[in-house]
């Protein structure tokens, strides 16, 4: 039996909209969210005939809302595309795929990117295609077009990435439903930055969903020169600052400010604007900086100590604005990325 594991991820890290991605992992197995998508692939006896030769079992986060139909579920749809583009039609022998998701859905923690990466790896495994991780990254990018989450999910660590090709040949939905063509090669470039090992990630997860598409619809088509400069100045410093020792909290906090997406999304997360105003390293020792995790609604704080005090302070501010449940968890950087191994 094979097991595919893909980490959840946090995109943007403030100024790096569609650029930065940070792969995440739980600090202990007892934490509520493993922040990882796991697929177990089990061959079924030749007589078994599930529809499409593929039985899907979903457990974990959002399992009730995920399709178990082989040509509807995002993971298996991506796998079918990878197979089709290699001249292989469908799952050739019966398999059971048990998906266990520890990544809360639509919370800005990269669940869809993890599903896409897992789907590409599943296609690679079923078709015995022997694709390199670099080539699998191309496959991921024609389906999920932001290199930030998929870059971190594939390669692990803290990455920055840029697309070399802005518009792959067809829309993701068309690619998934009927394309026979493999993706162009080398669609994006990425780089893994060093991260000071003292840095931990506090994720505050509100109890509501925010689809990335809805959060992207909030964004303007064009930006002012001032805002573009504001973000590129911070993007150029943040990866260096996060790799340094000792860390400089005041500089990091300033370098995590953003003008390209957070100001347009903050109304969707009541209290977030106030969190940005109040959570400063000079008031909360150990804190490095705060931003939205991906498209939200989760909030990410980088810190080296005082995790509970920082997390509770964020939750208290959010609760004043919206009295709902907030989970928080301290996470680490996942350095491994996506893996496939025998179990
Ligand atoms: N394990 C999975 N199996 C199948 N589909 C999944 C799985 N995980 C996520 N998805 C699909 O991805 C959707 C969530 O994607 P969305 O981009 O809105 O949020 P996200 O990826 O969690 O957040 P972000 O992109 O901001 O980090 C789910 O509603 C579901 O359709
Ligand atoms: N960079 C993306 C991440 C979510 O997939 C966004 O902020 O919309």
From TrEMBL:
Pfam families: GHMP_kinases_C, GHMP_kinases_N. It is an enzyme of class 2 (transferase). Its EC number is 2.7.1.39. It comes from the Eukaryota. Pathway: Amino-acid biosynthesis; L-threonine biosynthesis; L-threonine from L-aspartate: step 4/5. One of its GO terms (molecular function) is homoserine kinase activity. It catalyses: L-homoserine + ATP = O-phospho-L-homoserine + ADP + H(+). PROSITE patterns: GHMP_KINASES_ATP (PS00627). The keyword Kinase applies. The keyword Transcription regulation does not apply. Residues 73-157 form the GHMP kinase N-terminal domain. Keywords: Amino-acid biosynthesis, ATP-binding, Kinase, Lipid biosynthesis, Lipid metabolism, Nucleotide-binding, Steroid biosynthesis, Steroid metabolism, Sterol biosynthesis, Sterol metabolism, Threonine biosynthesis, Transferase. One of its GO terms (biological process) is sterol biosynthetic process. Residues 252-316 form the GHMP kinase C-terminal domain. NCBIfam families: thrB (TIGR00191). PANTHER family: HOMOSERINE KINASE, HOMOSERINE/4-DIPHOSPHOCYTIDYL-2-C-METHYL-D-ERYTHRITOL KINASE. Belongs to the GHMP kinase family. Homoserine kinase subfamily. This is Homoserine kinase. It comes from Cladonia borealis. The lineage of its organism: Eukaryota, Fungi, Dikarya, Ascomycota, Pezizomycotina.
């Amino acid at each position: 039996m094979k097991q595919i594991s893909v980490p959840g991820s946090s995109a943007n890290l403030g100024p790096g909209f569609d650029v930065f991605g940070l792969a995440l992992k739980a600090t202990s197995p007892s934490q509520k969210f493993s922040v990882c998508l796991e697929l177990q692939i089990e061959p079924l006896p030749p007589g078994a005939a599930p529809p499409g030769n593929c039985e899907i079992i979903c457990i974990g986060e959002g399992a009730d809302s995920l399709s178990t139909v082989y040509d509807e579920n995002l993971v298996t749809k991506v796998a079918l595309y990878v197979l089709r583009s290699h001249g292989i039609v469908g799952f050739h022998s019966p398999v059971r795929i048990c998906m266990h998701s520890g990544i809360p859905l639509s919370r800005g923690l990269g669940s869809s990117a993890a599903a896409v990466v897992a789907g590409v790896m599943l296609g690679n495994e079923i078709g015995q295609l022997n694709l390199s991780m670099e080539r699998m990254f191309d496959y991921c990018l024609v389906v999920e077009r932001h290199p930030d989450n998929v870059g971190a999910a594939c390669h692990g660590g803290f990455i920055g990435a840029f697309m070399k090709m802005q518009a792959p040949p067809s829309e993701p939905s068309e690619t998934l439903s009927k394309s026979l063509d493999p993706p162009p090669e080398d669609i994006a470039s990425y780089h893994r930055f060093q991260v000071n090992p003292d840095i931990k990630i506090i994720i505050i997860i509100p109890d509501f969903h925010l689809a990335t598409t809805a959060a992207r619809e909030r964004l303007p088509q064009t930006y002012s020169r001032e805002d573009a400069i504001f973000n590129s100045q911070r993007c150029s410093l943040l990866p260096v600052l996060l790799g340094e020792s000792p860390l400089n909290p005041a500089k990091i906090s300033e370098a995590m400010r953003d003008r390209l997406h957070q100001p347009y999304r903050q109304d969707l997360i009541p209290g977030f604007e106030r969190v940005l105003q109040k959570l400063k390293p000079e008031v909360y020792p150990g804190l490095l900086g705060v931003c939205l995790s991906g498209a939200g609604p989760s909030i990410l704080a980088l810190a080296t100590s005082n995790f509970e005090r920082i997390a509770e302070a964020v939750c208290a501010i959010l609760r004043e604005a919206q009295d709902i449940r907030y989970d928080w968890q301290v996470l680490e950087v996942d350095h491994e990325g996506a893996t496939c191994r025998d179990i």
